[in-house]
Design a protein that fits this description.
It catalyses: guanosine(527) in 16S rRNA + S-adenosyl-L-methionine = N(7)-methylguanosine(527) in 16S rRNA + S-adenosyl-L-homocysteine. Pfam families: GidB. Its main location: cytoplasm. GO terms for molecular function: rRNA (guanine-N7-)-methyltransferase activity. The protein has a single domain, classed as 3-Layer(aba) Sandwich (Rossmann fold), CATH 3.40.50.150. The protein is α/β, with parallel strands linked by helices and 210 residues long. Helix 1 runs parallel beside helix 3 and helix 7 crosses helix 8. Helix content is 41%, strand content 22%.
């Protein structure tokens, strides 16, 4: 079953044999690391190729010319590590993997080093970094209202946002618009019919109403 899902992923993502080898290596290393620290829900690992790999890779279909990405709250490496693997041979590609927890950053650094990925691991708060990128992204980090606060500095430096969200995406956007003026739209996720991808083109904090 795992091989069938792997083949399906390769076809959808257009991944090369080397990229598939790197992703398989990543899957194995993640499984081992997950047994000693909670990176992803253990029940989700058998569905690695769809729930994690394709969920991440689909972002490239929304921004095919983007080469520089910042993954806020990079955690286990979704979507950032997957993007770095798939962009490895693209000219000038780079992914910043930003996380505030040291042990997650050590895991991410090991992956980046072993696979020689075009990525930089940053152990720190997302909103305090000075990274300039084409796309700022995140998965399972915070509700949209708070996530936009983390991402605002990246928008101010010219980035657009592509955020992986679940079935509450629409209600999160409604709530976020109470605090932010934003140009945003929802698209269905290709990995889960309940999921949504939120594209944010611009954002600025709304003035409080008196």
């Amino acid at each position: 079953m795992l091989n069938a899902e792997k083949t399906l992923f390769q076809g959808k993502a257009g991944a090369t044999p080397q990229q598939m080898a790197d992703l398989e290596d990543f899957r194995i290393r993640l499984s081992k690391a997950n047994s000693v620290m909670n990176l992803v829900g253990p029940d989700s690992l058998p569905d690695f190729w769809n729930r994690h790999a394709w969920d991440s890779a689909q972002l490239l279909t929304h921004a095919p010319v983007a080469r520089t990405w910042a993954d806020l709250g990079a955690g286990a490496g979704f979507p950032g590590v997957v993007l770095a693997i798939l962009l490895k041979d693209a000219p000038d590609a780079h992914v910043w993997l930003i996380d505030s927890l040291g042990k997650r950053c050590r895991f991410l650094q090991e992956i980046v080093d072993v696979m020689d990925l075009p990525a930089t691991v940053i152990n720190g708060r997302a909103e305090e970094q000075t990274v300039k990128c084409d796309i700022v992204t995140a998965r399972a980090v915070a509700p949209m209202e708070r996530l936009l606060g983390y991402a605002q500095p990246y928008f101010q430096r010219g980035a657009q946002g592509l955020f992986l969200k679940g079935e509450k995406a629409e209600s999160e956007l409604i709530e976020a618009r109470k605090s932010w003026h934003l140009d945003a739209e929802l698209a269905p996720s290709q990995s889960d019919p309940r999921g949504r991808i939120v594209t944010v083109r611009s954002v600025r904090r709304a003035r409080p109403k008196h």
